[in-house]
Amino acid sequence: MRRLNVGMLSFAHAHAYDYLACLQQMPEVTVGGIADPVPERTEELAMRHAIPYYSDYRELLADASIDAVIICSENVHHAEHTLAASEAGKHVLCEKPLGLSAGEMERMIAGCEAKGVQLMTAFPCRFLTPVVRAKEAFDRGEIGEIIAFKGTNRGSFPGPAWFAEPSLSGGGAVLDHTVHVMDLMNWFTGSPVEQVYAYAGTLFDPEHKRTIDDSGMVHVTFANGVFGVLDPSWSRNPGFPTWGDVTLQIIGTEGVISIDAFNQKNNVYGRASGKGSWSFWGDDMNGLMLQAFVQALLEGTPVPVTGLDGLRSAEVALNAYRSVQEGQPVKLHR
Amino acid sequence: MIKTAVIGCGGMGNIHADRYMSMPEAQLIAVCDINGEAAERLGLLAGVKYYLSAQEMLEREKPEVVSIAVPTYLHVPMVRLAADYGAHVICEKPLALTSAEAEEAVRYCNGKGVRLFVGHVVRFFPAYSQLAEGIRQHGGGRGGIYHAKRAGSHPGQVQEWFRDPALSGGVIVDLMIHDIDYIRGTFGEAEEVYAFEHRTETMNYASATFRFGNGTLAQLEAFWGYPGAFHTAFEYAGADVIISGGTPDGESVHVRRAAASGSAPGFVETPASVLLKDPYYEELEHFLRCIASGAEPKVTAEDAVQAVRWAEAAVSSGATGLPVKLDAKGGIL
C-alpha cells in the first residue's frame, strides 16, 4: 500500500492537535514532520510521537519525502505558508478561513495549480454524516428547489489569544464562524453569492474588554434568488452544555430539511462539574475530512473541497465586514 | 360581573368564549358570526344567544366588552361598530392590516371613550414572560442575540382568506407579529429591519432581522406551510446568559391517539399550554381587570399599532431587498 507522508505546519489553530490524533490513526499516513514556531506547545508532543520537529517551516518543506502539509497557522499566514508549500511541491490542506483577501486567495489557488499540487480548504462540516445525508436527500429532490436557509454556527470564544488579534486573525466571529455554514449553503445551492448584508458587534465579553467582533448576523442573496441568514456569534458561555453548534435549516418549495449536526449526543450531569453537558457520539468529521484528503492524494483524484470553495466562503465573510462598514448591502465583485 | 360578547366564532372566537365562560368575573352573554352554522354551534355550546348580525347583537345585548375575532380585514370596521355601541373592545391581533388603519382604530375608540386592547398573547405565555425577566436580570440592556421562530401548517387550508395578503397581511403581519410585539416589549425600539419573504399559494415563509440601538439583533422566522406540527422556538444569548425554550419540547403532557389528529376541525392551529390558567385566559382576565381598574395593560393599543408598523417595515424590506430604518416611534424613515 502506498503511504502518504504528511507534514504539519503550525499548531496555532488548536484543530492541529485533533488532526494529528486523527492522522496517527490512519495506517496509510506517516506524519513526517511538525513545524511550529512555538516549541513549548509542540516540541515535546513531536518527540513523544517520534516525529521530526522544526521551529522553521522551511526546514519541513525542504524534506523531499513530505507529500502534503496541513496548515494550521494564524489566518494571516495562510497565504505565505500555502504558497511556500506549493513551491516546494507539497499538496496543501489549509485551515479555514483560506485567506484574508480575495486577491490573496486567488494567488494561493493559482500558485497550487501552477505547481500541480492540490489545495483543499478544511471544511470538516462537509463530512458530517447528517450533512451528507441532508445533501443526498436534497439531491434526490425531496424538498424541491431551495428558497431560503437559516443557519447557525454559534461557538465559544476561542482559546488561542491570536483569534482576538486582528493583525493575526483578520477578523473575529464573523470571519471565523461564517465560513463553515456559508460553505454548506454554497454547496447546496451551487449558485454564487451576489449580495451580502451583515451586522457585527462585540456583545459577549462579560468584562467588556474585548474589541474584536464576537457577534453578528450575516445575510446573503444568491444569484438564483435564494436567501440565507447565518448567526456566526461566539455566544456560548462556559455554562452552556457544549462548545457550540452547527445548524442549517433548508426551506424548499416541497419541504424542509433541518440539520442540527451535533444533536447526536448524550446528556451528562456530573456532580463535580456542577453543570449538565452534551457528549457527542456522532461520526468524527475531522477524521472523515482527513481521510478524504489523504485518499484523494493517494488515488490522484481531485480533493473534495477545493481552494475555490474556501475563497467563495471566505469572501462572504470579508464582504460582511465591508457591509458592516458601509452600513448597507454590498454586491460581490467578480 | 362584566358582560362580554364575542364577534367571530372561529378558532379564536371559540377560545375567547370558552375563557369568558370559565372566568368568575365575566359573563358571556352572546356570540355572533355571519356564518350561521359557526354562530349556532358556539351559541349552543356556550348556552348563550347567538346572532348573525353584530349590530343586532350589540343593540339587543348591550355587552360591556366585546371580543373581536373576525378575519383581519374586518377588524377595524368591527372595532368601530363595537365602539359605536359603547363597548370596550378586545381585538385579536393584528389590530389592522396597515398602521394607518390601526391608528385610526385607536383614535376612534379614544373618541368614543371606550378602551381598546389587542390580543398579543405571547406576552402572556409564562415561557416568554420569564424569558423577558431573565433577559432583564442578566444585563439585557448590554445587548445580545435573539432568535425566534413560529412555524406551522398554512391557515389558508382552513380559512381561505389567509392566502390573500390583502386580507390577512401574510405571514409577517399575521404570524411574525407575535414575535415582533414580543421583541418590542422586551428590547425596546429597533433602528432597522432587514427581511426576506417568499409567498406562494401553499407557503409563506419570512425571515427578518431587527437591529436595536444597543446592538441587540433579533432574528425572526415565520412560516405558513411548514410540513410538520406547529412549533415555536426562542433563544436569547447575552454575555452572561443563554435562555432557550420552545414547543413542543416545553410541554409536559402529550396525549397520543391511534387515530390521526391535527387542528380542531375548521380551526387554525393555535398553541396550547397545560396550565390552570392558560395564556389566553391570563390575557383576557388581565384586560378585564384593566377595564375595571382603569390601569394600563401590559400591552397597549399603541403597542399594537407599533407592531403593525414594524411588520409593515419588514414586509417592505422583504419586497425591496433593502434594509428599512425605523424611527424612534417605529415609523419607517
Automatic annotation (TrEMBL), chain A:
Pfam families: GFO_IDH_MocA, GFO_IDH_MocA_C3. SUPFAM superfamilies: Glyceraldehyde-3-phosphate dehydrogenase-like, C-terminal domain, NAD(P)-binding Rossmann-fold domains. Residues 132-257 form the GFO/IDH/MocA-like oxidoreductase domain. InterPro entries: Gfo/Idh/MocA-like_OxRdtase_N, Gfo/Idh/MocA_Oxidoreductases, GFO_IDH_MocA-like_dom, NAD(P)-bd_dom_sf. Residues 16-122 form the Gfo/Idh/MocA-like oxidoreductase N-terminal domain. This is Gfo/Idh/MocA family oxidoreductase.
From TrEMBL, chain B:
It comes from Paenibacillus phytohabitans. Residues 150-237 form the GFO/IDH/MocA-like oxidoreductase domain. It holds the Pfam family GFO_IDH_MocA_C3. InterPro entries: Gfo/Idh/MocA-like_OxRdtase_N (IPR000683), Gfo/Idh/MocA_Oxidoreductases (IPR051450), GFO_IDH_MocA-like_dom (IPR055170), NAD(P)-bd_dom_sf (IPR036291). This is Gfo/Idh/MocA family oxidoreductase. Residues 2-120 form the Gfo/Idh/MocA-like oxidoreductase N-terminal domain. Transmembrane segments: none annotated. It comes from the Bacteria. Gene3D superfamilies: Dihydrodipicolinate Reductase, domain 2, NAD(P)-binding Rossmann-like Domain.
